[in-house]
Specification:
Radius of gyration: 20 Å
Structural class: mainly beta
Number of domains: 1
CATH class: Mainly Beta
GO molecular function: methanethiol oxidase activity; selenium binding
Subcellular location: Nucleus; Cytoplasm, Cytosol; Membrane
Oligomer: single chain
Distance between the termini: 17 Å
CATH architecture: 7 Propeller
InterPro entries: Se-bd
Strand content: 35-45%
Number of strands: 34
Protein name: Methanethiol oxidase
Membrane topology: Peripheral membrane protein
């Protein structure tokens, strides 16, 4: 096994990555948009080393120079796709802003425990050079370039295109897709060069979802329900797969094995997971393999509450699939050894909108409302949302903020009290999820006021940022 950093960034194979070192610090964006705190969002560095005196503490905060950016997801300048190139280093974190359309390039190489801003790409660069806006998912490419998916155009309409950055200068080069090929909506994506394919997903119209969710907007066609299949070499959209109205497919994950021609996508509003795969004829298809039933409720916006699957992960050995039900409040673990028939092996009910003492009551279960989750004396607001798995698959981290506009609507106490990170111990032999009662990072106690912590990244790469080619 090549040692970490011996050849290039990341690891030669996903199984090599599983033997990598335990995570000691993590990075995650913290958001103040839509909260009473009128301060810039910031990047938090958190100590997750149990041997450290600052365990479970925020050890550094890097504020952005602007307010209302809505930092969201992040990626790297280089990852395991560049492992064979010893000249490459994973030393810059790419941090797009979902609302302002700024892109921050963060230096995490000079001092990993105290990142600093290396470069700011202003919105007008993205607008003028790409006619795109609302950047979301960032992945590095083996070419040395960086690609960022988008959700909209500069006017706030839906537009699923891809921004290309130079991997050395971080200048905006233009769009990855050929002119006229952008999808109606955009969100996440994953590429698999051995099959000459990339597949992207859809959230919705940025100006419609900016400050909240209205079910009527789904009926009006402002939310997506397709997977878009792209020719990786030609940069053209060759197929769109309709998953059904109201699905809203968000996070997409190919299996980590670069030879694999299949993966899974979590669909938020429909509470379902689809398996997508290459057919014998060379086309791509998708079928639903998991369905989480909605709950009949009283005291909520609708008579039925969907689970709202918002994040999905696959372990590096392609054995287990994990996802979070943000409204129902549980995290689930499935054995996907038989990918056509995922088997639920563990479901951990953490906390949810309909917990005891809250305004929402599950019809028919009035006497069995779950107790609020309390860890280290702190009542947890919101529910498990973004998840990240340790390289060895034994620890699952979960943060609680989805997106400030939706946090404010669905979990108003999350805005008041801030979000958290919890840790769940994973049984990788038989399956099983157990909350670590000694781990809690509480962003309700931040110096500038309660913050909304989002996606979790490890400095050495992780399950959702590294792609093998």
């Amino acid at each position: 096994m090549a040692k970490h950093g011996e050849c290039g960034p990341g690891y030669k194979t996903p199984l090599d990555a599983m033997k990598g070192p335990r995570e000691e610090i993590v990075y995650l964006p913290c958001i103040y948009r839509n909260t009473p705190v009128k301060k810039p969002d910031y990047l938090a560095t958190v100590d997750v080393d149990p041997k450290s005196p600052t365990y479970c503490k925020v050890i550094h905060r890097l504020p952005m120079p602007n307010i209302n950016d809505e930092l969201h997801h992040s990626g790297w300048n280089n990852c395991s796709s560049c492992h064979g190139d010893p000249t490459k280093k994973r030393d810059r974190l790419i941090l797009p802003s979902l609302i302002s359309s700024r892109i921050y390039v963060i230096d995490v190489g000079t001092d990993p425990r105290a990142p600093r801003i290396h470069k700011t790409i202003e919105p007008h660069d993205v607008f003028w050079k790409c006619n795109l806006a609302n950047p979301h998912t960032s992945h590095c490419l083996a070419s040395g370039e960086i690609m960022i998916s988008t959700m909209g155009d500069p006017s706030g309409n839906g537009k699923g295109g891809f921004i290309l950055l130079d991997g050395e200068t971080f200048q905006v080069k233009g769009t990855w897709e050929k002119e006229g090929e952008a999808a109606p909506f955009g969100y996440d994506y994953w590429y698999q060069p051995r099959h000459n394919v990339m597949i992207s997903t859809e959230w919705g119209t940025p100006k419609v979802l900016a400050d909240g969710f209205n079910p009527k907007d789904v009926q009006a066609g402002h939310y997506g329900h397709h997977l878009h299949v792209w020719d990786w070499t030609k940069h053209t959209r060759i197929q769109s797969i309709d998953l059904g109205e109201g699905t809203i497919p968000l996070e997409i994950r190919f299996l980590h094995d670069p030879d694999a021609s299949e993966g899974f996508v979590g669909c938020a509003l429909s509470g379902s997971v689809f398996r997508f795969h290459k057919t014998p004829e060379g086309k791509w298809a998708a079928e639903k393999v998991i369905q989480v039933p909605s709950k009949k409720v009283k005291g909520w916006a609708l008579p039925e509450m969907p689970s709202l699957i918002t994040d999905i992960l696959i372990s590096l050995d392609d054995h287990y699939l994990y996802f979070s039900n943000w409204l129902h409040g549980d995290i689930r673990q499935y054995d996907i050894s038989d990918s056509k028939h995922p088997k639920l092996v563990a479901g951990r009910c953490l906390w949810e909108a309909a917990c005891e003492g809250g305004p929402v009551v599950v019809v028919g279960e009035e006497d069995s409302q779950p107790q609020p989750l309390i860890i280290k004396g702190t009542r947890i607001q919101g529910a498990a949302q973004m998840i990240q798995l340790s390289l060895d698959g034994k620890r699952l981290y979960a943060s609680t903020s989805l997106y400030s506009g939706w946090d404010k609507q669905f979990y108003p106490d999350l805005i008041k009290h801030g979000s958290v990170i919890v840790q769940i111990d994973v049984n990788t032999e038989k399956g099983g999820l157990t909350i670590n009662e000694n781990f809690l990072v509480d962003f309700g106690k931040e110096p500038e006021g309660p913050a909304l912590a989002h996606e979790i990244r490890y400095p050495g790469g992780d399950n959702s940022s590294d792609i093998w080619i």
